[in-house]
Design a protein that fits this description.
Layout: E1 2-3, E2 5-8, E3 11-19, H1 34-62, H2 65-79, H3 81-92, H4 97-113, H5 118-139, E4 153-157, H6 162-166, E5 173-178, H7 186-194, E6 198-200, H8 205-208, E7 214-218, E8 223-226, H9 230-250, E9 258-259, E10 265-272, H10 275-283, E11 289-293, H11 295-298, H12 307-320, E12 326-329, H13 356-362, H14 364-377, E13 383-387, H15 393-412, E14 423-427, H16 430-434, H17 436-442, E15 445-448, H18 450-458, H19 476-491, E16 495-498, H20 509-515, E17 519-522, H21 527-535, H22 539-550, H23 555-565
Parallel strand pairs: 3-4, 4-5, 5-6, 10-11, 10-17, 11-12, 12-13, 13-14, 14-15, 15-16, 16-17
Antiparallel strand pairs: 1-8, 2-6, 3-7, 7-8, 9-10
The structure holds phosphoenolpyruvate (PEP) and magnesium ion.
């Protein structure tokens, strides 16, 4: 078995076709007839553009506009007056067209590769692709035609370039394996757009695999099964069938409201960590953001992000979400989330220590600058503030006071913000569950963080395998907490959501419907599945299941029973 990055979901079973790199070798020669060489070059560019245009048209029909635009971008790059001018200048200095193309392209490749910015680095791949195609045309080399690949082909390449992708016939290519690329590389985007299972960054794939051998590509788990046994082929064929069936069926839920079988409507939001994730939330049909984990804006850097930087990030998320609700959780550091430049001291018991709201309330300047950034972004959409790790009413009050202070500062500077911004509590500690009736009187909403609520209720560290048997949201104690939080919030007329992983668990859904949860916040890929699972339940059915569950004494009994009803 070979491992790589799961880049495009699904399972493909087929025969390997290795597309080795073309040998684009030539002997540089001195040019005597410059005009003829310039014409040879411009003919090659014309041929390249014509070919690329044809490929773009084909891909537009088979895949979509966005993918065709990547190829059309190649035409724009080669037609760019600066790049073209540089190549022509070299030819005028009596270099052959091949050398001129190679030299200028290399300059751009080095420039783009050095930026460290993922999007700009993608441009380097584009230029490499253009260079190879132009050289092939100039050298009269016939490139391997992926479009000739027979049915059930698994394409194995070092790097999947957009022009290769253009040759892919969706009905023949059942899987893609590359040696390079990440989740967000063009290869991944294109593979997903083509809906072909893909595993990227498989080390040495083009040498470890051989043409015509049978393999299985598991794009959901980032695995390549080599020399599969008859049983493995049968198992993966079943998995593939069920994946395709589920996928077809899930699409029926796109663009629909999230409603139970009794007609009750729910909000179905996404959890995000960066503004970029908001794009994924939108693409996944999320109706808003139920948890923006802001600590990602503070990580992977050497100093705190400024108020302006944060404002831009929150505003960008709001614009991407087209003004839909966004719940921004204030900085939740400490415990398992480290930010080295804050210089937090090592603690005996970090999960119970100086973290999250506790740290923020003691570092008021930093906290206020985050709150001001959130408030400023609230002028651009429906933005809400949420405090993590609340254990006492005083913490909520202190946080709200700071929000009021930040508001007066902004008013004094004539900066717009939403005067009625909602301030909520992330109920993720045992204490917040027990005092939910008190917190509900002073919070505008609750969102249940079951990841931590489970750990703090069970006194079981989520990362410790020895106590993993205790760490379950289906423990009666955790279910009692969830029920209590929802009931206390409902009684005070505030909305109660859930942003912990449990919100997407099909076995938890009937219980949440019965308890009265109004908002689910899940990871983007879970949106349609959760919408489907909610639609299955009537209130009566959910209530009956919940009544039974809440009368049971052990997690095992509960899970054994729930498995029979979902
Ligand atoms: C949670 O605790 O349930 C939660 C959603 O937050 P995090 O996983 O970021 O701690
Ligand atoms: Mg948490």
């Amino acid at each position: 078995m070979l491992k790589g990055i799961a880049a495009s979901e699904g399972i493909g079973i087929g025969k390997v076709m290795i597309v080795a790199e073309q040998k684009l070798e030539y002997v540089p020669k001195e040019v005597t007839d410059v005009d003829a060489e310039l014409k040879r070059y411009s003919d090659a560019v014309d041929a390249f553009c014509e070919e690329t245009m044809e490929q773009a048209d084909a891909i537009r029909k088979s895949t979509g506009n966005k993918e065709a635009e990547i190829l059309e971008g190649h035409i724009a790059i080669i037609r760019d007056p600066f790049m073209n001018g540089e190549i022509e200048n070299l030819i005028k200095s009596e270099q052959c067209a091949e050398k001129a193309v190679e030299q200028v392209c290399q300059m751009f490749i080095d420039m783009f590769s050095a930026t460290g910015d993922e999007l700009t680095m993608q441009r380097a791949t584009d230029v490499k692709d253009i260079r190879d195609s132009l050289l092939a045309i100039l050298l009269g080399i016939h490139q391997v035609k992926i479009s000739d690949a027979p049915a059930n082909t698994v394409l194995v390449v070092k790097e999947l370039t957009p022009s290769m992708t253009a040759g892919i016939k969706k009905e023949n290519i059942v899987g893609i394996i590359t040696e390079t690329g990440s989740q967000t590389s063009h290869s991944a985007i294109l593979a997903r757009a083509l809906e072909i299972p893909a595993v990227l960054s498989v080390e040495g794939a083009t040498t470890k695999l051989s043409t015509d051998e049978q393999i299985i590509v598991d794009g959901s788990n980032g695995e390549v099964v080599t020399a599969p046994s008859i049983t493995e082929i049968a198992d993966y064929t079943d998995k593939r069938e069920s994946f395709l069936r589920d996928k077809r069926e899930l699409e029926n839920y796109r663009g629909k409201k999230t409603v139970s079988a009794s007609g009750t409507e729910y909000e179905l939001f996404c959890n995000i960590g960066t503004p970029k994730d908001a794009t994924k939330a939108m693409a996944a049909d999320g109706e808003g953001v139920g948890l923006f984990r802001t600590e990602f804006l503070f990580m992977d850097r050497n100093a705190l992000p400024t108020e302006d930087e944060q404002f831009e990030a929150y505003k960008q998320a709001s614009i991407i979400m087209k003004g839909a609700p966004i719940i921004i959780r204030t900085l939740d550091i400490g415990g398992d989330k480290e930010i080295p430049y804050l210089g937090l001291e090592k603690e005996e018991n970090p999960f119970m220590g100086f973290r999250a709201i506790r740290y923020c309330l003691k570092n008021r300047d930093m906290f206020k600058s985050q709150i001001k950034a959130i408030l400023r972004a609230s002028a651009f959409g429906d933005i809400r503030i949420m405090f993590p790790l609340i254990t006492a009413v005083e913490e909520l009050r202190a946080g709200k006071e700071l929000v009021e202070e930040a508001k007066s500062d902004l008013r004094a500077s004539n900066i717009d913000f939403d005067e009625n911004i909602q301030v909520g509590v992330m109920t993720e500690t045992a204490a917040s569950g027990v005092i939910a009736h008190l917190l509900a009187k002073e919070a505008d909403f609750f969102s249940i963080g079951t990841n931590d609520l489970t750990g703090y209720t069970m006194a079981a560290d989520r990362g410790n395998g020895d106590v993993a048997y205790l760490y379950s949201p289906f423990q009666p104690s955790v279910l009692m907490m969830i029920k209590r939080i929802i009931e206390c919030g409902t009684k005070e007329g505030i909305s109660v959501g859930m942003c912990g992983e449990a919100a997407a668990n099909p076995m938890m859904i009937p219980l949440l419907i019965s308890f009265g949860l109004t908002e689910f916040s899940v990871s983007a890929p879970s949106v349609l599945k959760v919408r489907k699972n909610i639609s299955k339940w009537t209130q009566e059915e959910a209530d009956a299941v919940t009544e039974k569950v809440m009368s049971m004494a052990t997690e095992k009994e509960i899970l054994d029973y729930l498995k029979t009803v979902v």
